[in-house]
Amino acid sequence: MKRVKVSDADKPWAVRAKTGRAASGRFRVKNLFRIFCEGENTEPLYLKGFPVNTETHVEVVGLGRGKSALVREVISRLKRDGMLSRQENYDADRQIWVVFDMDCRGVDSDFADFDQAVALASQHGLRVAWSNDAFELWFVLHYKYLDSALSREQYYELLSGYLCHDYKSEGKRKDFCTGLYKRLLADQAVAIRNASKLFESWHSGVPFSKRNPSTAVFHLVAELNRCLKP
What is the domain range of residue 29? Predict the structure, then answer.
């Protein structure tokens, strides 16, 4: 690990340690997740619900930007924080993720922007939890395997039935989103199996923007699950 500036000594990425407790008796950070989301409520509040252990620090930020605009902003922030250097070769205990949707509007430029965002993130060593067409596909997969392309409105309709709430009107509210992790936890293993099966059903040569439906969110969920409290 490169030497840490004195001014940065108290920051999460600077205090990581491979060993157990610090001299103060508190656990030091061993695993660091920085997760940058397109959405400002649904994705961040769901991901913050994962009860990680005391050796893991999870920072989740909703930036309200999508696709390549989100990735460029994240790269800018990481450069400012001194975290982008050699990120592509960094070990697995420091993970930086971007989370965004295809959110298709039928505009050709959106498809190119989505693929560009995935490529740009990968070039800089960032991990991508993308969804095509919407993050809500990950939620639906907790209840059923779905291999037909649906609109965002159709996802909302399905979730309204599964969650017994009007998802369109309540699904973005902070109090609702905060409880999603616990509400969905019992079926999370089903969602991982369904998402993995769906992900593998697409040939690797198909552009990410054309893989509808599909989601890579299960990769991020699996990584967070490695760091849960016992």
Answer: 6-225
Instruction: Flag whether 230 is in a domain.
Output: no
And the tokens for 65? Answer: 């930007």
CA–CA separation, 128 vs 207, rounded Å? 14
In a domain, 188, yes or no: yes
Report the number of distinct structural domains present in the chain.
1
**DSSP symbol at 21:** B
In a domain, 74, yes or no: yes
CB 141, CB 195: distance < 8 Å: yes
- Note if the bond before 108 is cis, omega within 30 degrees: no
Percentage of residues of the chain with pLDDT beyond 90: 76
In this structure, the dihedral spanned by the alpha carbons of residues 10, 63, 67 and 145, taken in order and rounded to 10 degrees, is 90
What is the Cα gyration radius of the chain? 18
- The C-alpha angle with vertex 7 and arms to 91 and 11, in degrees rounded to 5, equals 45
Distance CA 128, CA 31 (A): 18
pLDDT tens digits, 156-194: 999 999 999 999 998 889 999 999 999 999 999 999 999
Question: CA-based angle 78:192:221, to the nearest 5?
Answer: 25
pTM attached to this predicted model:
0.87
